Amino acid sequence: MAEINQTNVERALGGCRWVQHILTYDNVNSTMDVAREAATSGAPEATVVMAACQSRGRGRLARSWSSPEGSLSLSILLYPSEDKLQSLTMMAGLAVARAISDAALIQVDLKWPNDLLIRGRKVGGILVESGYVEGRQFAVIGIGINVNLDAMKFAEIADIATSLSVESGAEVDVLKLLRGIIVEAEALYVNFNSQGIYNEWRQRLVTLGCRVTAVTGKAIIEGLAEDVKMDGSLIIRSDDGRSHNIIAGDVMLRHVS
């Protein structure tokens, strides 16, 4: 397995003109925190932060995300326009799914709003955070993927989690995967096409057509996941016939209809 260090990451991303700055660490609390700090220091767009391990990685709703050695922990700092900001989670999901398909020859599905699944089991996740620095809007895309982790890591949660190496039966080149993600993200971001991004993202969503239980705030909504809107919100038709527009929350799949 290629060592994740500054030299190897720079070599892997060589020729990627989009990347303006690279920060690589053996271990950090969170690559997202480093990227946010970089924004406050005036770091350029397409600053990439990568770590071999994270001690305090996080997912949505302030949950922790385990990032041991053998996983990919990556954050990308951007300064998006408002229309691009709305599509960042979709863009990141597509970039990662495409890159995994190329690097590991595995089909990846997306579960609303930000989970990466292989055969129904979680292999990674995406988190987008945004803010302002001196009146300028920035966003950080955080990406966490279980790459080269053996089955023992998932012995207790094998029904819900997996890794690329477990699914492919071989070690995956994490630096090739990194480059693939950056190349795909650049293509989607620079050649921005909101309708095209939405269409492909929607097609990859395994959530649609499933009965789901959505937890949003204090509300629990059960019903059929009917569709998603251009802004990424999920439309659920509850059993009483009402339509619910879910902007944020947890969604559990019950079964495919």
Order of helices and strands: HEHEEHEEEEHHHEEEEE
Number of spatially distinct domains: 2
* Shape annotation: globular
Distance between the termini: 41 Å
Describe the 3D structure.
With 257 residues, the chain is an alpha+beta fold. The chain has helices at residues 6-12, 31-40, 82-104, 164-168, 174-190, 194-204, and strands at 21-28, 47-54, 71-78, 109-111, 115-118, 121-133, 136-146, 210-216, 219-228, 234-238, 243-246, 250-256. The strands form two sheets. A seven-stranded mixed β-sheet has the order 1-2-3-7-6-5-4, sandwiched between helices. A five-stranded antiparallel β-sheet has the order 11-10-9-8-12, with no helix packed on it. Helix 3 packs antiparallel against helix 5 (174-190) and helix 3 crosses helix 6 (194-204).
Question: What's the quick description here?
Answer:
This protein has six helices and twelve strands.
Name the features.
single chain, 257 residues, alpha+beta, BirA Bifunctional Protein, domain 2, SH3 type barrels, seven-stranded mixed β-sheet, 12 strands, 28% helix, 34% strand, globular, ATP-binding, BPL_LPL_catalytic, biotin--[biotin carboxyl-carrier protein] ligase activity
